Each structure stands twice: as structure tokens, then as C-alpha cells.
Amino acid sequence: MVSRRRSLLKVGAATLALTVASMQLLHCGGQSLSARDGGNENDATVEAGSIDDGSAPNCICLGDASGTVPTCDGAVGWQCRVDTSCSSGSPTTLTGKVFDPAGANPLYNAVVFIPNDPAALPAINPGTNACTTCDVSIGPYVVAAATDASGTFTLQGVPTGVDVPVTVQIGKWRRTVAVNITKDCGSNSVTDGVLRLPRKKSEGDMPQMALLTGGCDDLGCFLTNVGIDPVEFSAPHGGGRVDVYQGLGTTGNGAGPSVGVAGDCTSSACPLWASKQSLESYDTVLLSCECGENNQTKPPAAMQALHDWLDEGGYVFASHFQYTWFKNNPQTDFQNVATWLGPSAATGSGAYDVDTIAEGQGFGDWLGVVGALDGAGSPPALDLANVATSVSTVNGPTTQWIYDPNTTPNNTKYLSFETPVGGTPPPPPSPCNETACVSKKFCGKAVFADLDVSSNTPGDAGAVPEGCPKQGLTPQQKALEFLFFDEVACVTENCPPPPPPPFPQAPCDAGGD
């Protein structure tokens, strides 16, 4: 079983474990900067000398208006606006919840932080062609935290002011929102729904995704109901964040994306999996069920390409008959991640148990928060429909998320595994990589659901997103949403957190991992 994941992100030169112990309270010149001027703690300008205890040069904080960054004597950034005179029992805090792009379901293990300078956030480049594990940086920050199973976070020691930037990030999803924090040395909160991931790239950063449509599933409609805006569905390399490819079982010109014509994956000439290089344009690939293995469109070279791309950091979601990418892959490590049973129609339904070992505990808690569980039993159970029996047990490091408790062996319905399978030795510990206790390094991840996410395929000749019904997520789709966002979290072993890094962060040396 893979060890439990912590939320780890590269922060400048060091890897930050987002725990309470690693949150920093940073300020200008060692002084207490609450931006008070005549009793008004939200004034845009603080007079020189208005905050001076004689221990450091006077600081001038200029402007909290949107798009500006406080400038203090000898320093620039929101760390200048943290009031360090607050008692340890009453720091300035900000609490709230982080939601999916639709603003409907809270997110677990999302990072929430206040960047020192929102204009200097590290660039996020779409596509995957090298192992990055936890190298998606949040950059220099003032304070940071991770959300719990209810999507809730608490930031302690936050700046006070108007339009304070609050950034939410998980993997390559990132969005910054301006929040007024008005209670110095007290509790502040953000209204539910304000902090969410972006729906379109104009709102923030999003990964580059490839969607394969299929006649027996609607992962494209799943994406629209998660909240991704229809404008992001486009022809391959057409400018959207979801490139659409037509799989077997659909009609018309494939998926009918919002921009252009879908790529053709109805033959062995599919441009999506033509080579490892073609897959490298993407961060995530979603493979909808095509009502059969259809191996004639997936030659061994294509399966090898997917294998190699996953090993270097790609992410894959596969439903039902798309197990063929693993069961029939030329590489035995993919074949052996589970005991595959072969073709099975998706006809079952009922309550299936949630595995609460290791990572599953947060999974079960989150499913309860979003109202997806079938009652309050132990272990928690989830109602599934359109369920197949293509796999019995998971092997080696594979994680079982949902399983059938009424069969022997308990056949698995949701599983995931990290790649390379079994991991590789990590580089020597340094300020630019994981701590010394890490014994294995992983890069990518595959998630498999042995079911059709929904029996309702798009009505307009398979068009996505135009043919997708607008509706909330079913319990089994909520389970997939958890895995969809959990998938991009870092893969690491359960190490003690490193000490908080100094501020500001020094850049890693070129070539640092």
C-alpha cells in the first residue's frame, strides 16, 4: 500500500510541508505593521513614522488597492502588513473553504496561501515531459495552509488590509482572489464559494487536458458539471484547456467541441497516443469508455507511449473498458498493478465499501461531507451504478479506493497507482528536493474506475459540451471528482516535515530537482 500523502509543494528553494509548524509570520524590519493611520487600519497609505517602536527604520506601506503591492522601507510585499504585535493567542486569522470550479463541492488537500507579491507567482507551464512530483511551486508566500476533508482552512498571521490576495492551488490549478481582511488580531472569514478553482484560463491557471469521448461514458459531461467552462473545450491544440478527441461509439464529427473539430481516435492513427511526444502536450488524459477494448485503435506502440509518458509524470483517468491500457500493455509492470478479469458488461449497481486504509480515510470523510455516502455505516459505503467486474484485487503498491464487500476476493471498483510502478530511488537530499527519509520517488499517476461514470451520454450526436445536461454530480461522480483533484497532489512518503524555510526564498540552483 502506498504511504499516506502530505500536501507538498515547492516553495522557492525548499520543499514546504504545509503544517501549522511551517507557517510563517513575516514583516518589515522586525516591526509591527498593522497599517493604522488615525485609527483606520484599512487606509491605503500609512504615514512615515506612524509605526515606529525605535527598533527598526520606519516603514511606509503604500496602497492596498487591487493590483498593487505594499511597499515598505527596504522591502516589498504583503509580509509588510502582518501585525506582529498580536498576542500568540489572538493572531490575525482568515478562515474559509475552497471549492471546485463549479463552487459546489469543497476540496480536500488544496493549498491556500497569501503570496508575498501576486504579480510574481511562478509561471505554470501546461504539458508534461519530465518528472516533477512536487515541483509545482507556490513561490514566496506570507502564510500557507492546506484544506481538510471539509475544504476548510485557517491561515494564522495574515496581513490586514483591503484586497489582500488569497491564492488557492492544487497542482497546476491556481486562482487568486482579492479579500478584505479588516479585523486586526482577530478572526476574519471568507464567504463560501468565493475561493474556488478557475473555470476558465482567464480566471487563473489550469492544466492542459485531453478528453477521449466514448459511446458508453461521458467524462466530458463530468468535466462540465465539475465546473469547467464550455469555452475551454476545443479541437486538439485549438486554444482551450480541454482538447477533445473522438473515440469509438460516438457519431458525427466526434465530440463537437466549442472550438474546431475533434481529433479522430477511431483508428490506429489516433493523434493523441501516436507517440510519447504527442502525449507530452498534456498534463491529464481522460479516457471515456468506448463500449469495448477496441484494441485495434491502440497498437502496442501507443500503449508503450502511454506507459512511458506516465512514468515521466503524466496523469490518466480511465473508465471501464479502458482497463485495456493496463491489462494488455506490453509492459508487465502495468499488467501486474491488479488482477484483471477481462471483459465485463457494466450492469451492476448497489452499495460498495470505501476503503479507509491509508489515503482512504480522508476520502471517506470527504464523501460524507458532500453527501455521497449510503448511510453512516462502517466502513462507509457508496451507491454505484453501471458497475462492471473487470478486476478482482489490487497488487503491490496499487491503492484500492472502493470495492465490493460481497465477493471473494473483494473486487475493486476504483483504484489508482503511482508511476513508475514501484518508484525509483530519489536524488540525494538537498534544499531543492524531498527530505532524506524518502526512499522512493514517483512521477505520475493512473486512476481506473470499473464502471461507466454515467449512463447518460451527450444527446447531440455525442457533442461535448453542448450536449451535456447541466446537473449536479451523482455520488459516483463525486468519488471521481475527489480522485480527479487528488490525482494532481504530490506523491511522497510520510516524512516528518522539514523546518520552515527562511524568507525570502533563494532560487534553486539550475538543475536542482
Mind explaining what this structure looks like?
This protein is α/β, with parallel strands linked by helices and 513 residues long. It has 2 domains: 1-206, Immunoglobulins (Immunoglobulin-like); 207-486, Class I glutamine amidotransferase (GATase) domain (Rossmann fold, 3-Layer(aba) Sandwich), CATH 3.40.50. Helix content is 11%, strand content 23%. The chain is built from 7 helices and 24 strands. Strands 12, 13, 14, 15, 16, 17, 19, 20, 22, 23 and 24 form an 11-stranded mixed beta sheet that branches. The radius of gyration is 24 Å and the shape is globular. The protein starts with 7 loop residues before the first strand and ends in a 27-residue tail after the last helix. Mean pLDDT is 78; it is low at 1-67 and 491-513.
Task: Provide a concise account of the structure shown.
The protein is an alpha/beta fold. It is built from 7 helices and 24 strands.
Rg over alpha carbons: 24 Å
Percent helix, as a range, is: 10-25%
The major beta sheet can be summarized as: 11 strands, mixed
Structural class: alpha/beta
How many domains? 2
Total number of β-strand segments? 24
Roughly what is the average pLDDT, rounded to an integer? 78
Number of helices: 7
CATH topology title of the largest domain: Rossmann fold
Strand content range:
15-25%
Label the CATH architecture of the largest domain.
Answer: 3-Layer(aba) Sandwich
End-to-end distance: 26 Å
Task: Assign an overall shape.
Answer: globular
Q: Uncertain spans, ≥5 residues at pLDDT below 50?
A: 1-67, 491-513
